[in-house]
Amino acid sequence: MAHENGWTFLDDRGRPATAPRTPGRPVAYIQAGAALYDLGIRPVGVFGSAHDGAAADPVKAGALPLDGTAYLGPGPAVDAETVLAAGPDLVVAVAYGAGGPVYGLDPDTAKRIEERLPVVVLDVGQERSLDETRARFAELARSLGAPPPPAHSDAARAARTAAAAAAAGTRVLALSPAGPDSVHLARPGAWPDLRALTDCGVTVAAPAPGPGINWSTTDWNRAALLEPDVVLLDVRANAAPPERLARTAGWREIEARARIVPWNPELPCSARAHDAFFRTVARALTARQG
């Protein structure tokens, strides 16, 4: 919030970020930058994670225009001087868990940046609901001068539609292709958007217990045994595209059976992005029933 003594915001680590005046040139992790843009705050630059490459991932960027927004590179390749060269007065990052490290950046880099700039870290992990992550980003955006976010009644209506369709037994599976020989199956409890679907009554298939907090890595034949009716397919740049899977029997079986829905596991934390997600899933569920 802004006041006569400057600007301050308490982040999800419990640390206050402070500045003599309200920041107007944030640099952000790309998911956070996409959320801020949806909320009326345009970052001057964004950075990726170890999964990203030399160019910004347009899926992660959401509606954020990449023309005119500096891409500072994948997090491990970003140093403090690269961030400072963009001329920011604030850095907005995410963490998976309120006490977790800054996601994407090398810990020493994050420490050096925080010695020079205010840093806000918001939790997008499994301890937060979709509504809670959206509310925290809206709170940050308002502190930076953005108007209140629009209502998200469309998401609620779409979720009820999805739940009604799911009552007939439609099964959803979220996955990220690793390549022709293996696939990462999402554990529904680890992802706020998948938990939100479950809370609405949607049946989200869960892989077998085992290693991996967010994902279970297996082969395509075992994935096909889950018999999904709708597949949420990770379409980020780091996921193998469907054309690489054309000769994989398990994928062909899934593709023949299920409706395929593009999915961004790093959904921007905004009403705009959440509404679009619910509407897209609801359409797939109701179409599958038809």
Explain how this protein is built.
This is ABC transporter substrate-binding protein. This protein has helices at 30-38, 58-61, 80-85, 107-116, 130-143, 153-166, 192-199, 220-224, 249-257, 271-289; strands spanning 2-3, 6-10, 16-19, 26-29, 45-47, 70-71, 90-95, 119-123, 171-179, 182-186, 203-204, 215-218, 230-234, 259-263. α6 (153-166) packs parallel to α10 (271-289). The protein is globular, with a radius of gyration of 20 Å. The strands form 3 sheets. Strands 9, 10, 11, 12, 13 and 14 form a 6-stranded mixed sheet that branches. A 5-stranded parallel sheet has the order 6-5-4-7-8. The protein has a 3-stranded antiparallel sheet with strand order 1-2-3, with no helix packed on it. It has 2 domains: 2-143, Rossmann fold; 153-289, 3-Layer(aba) Sandwich (Rossmann fold). By secondary structure, the protein is an alpha/beta fold. β13, α9 (249-257) and β14 form a beta-alpha-beta unit.
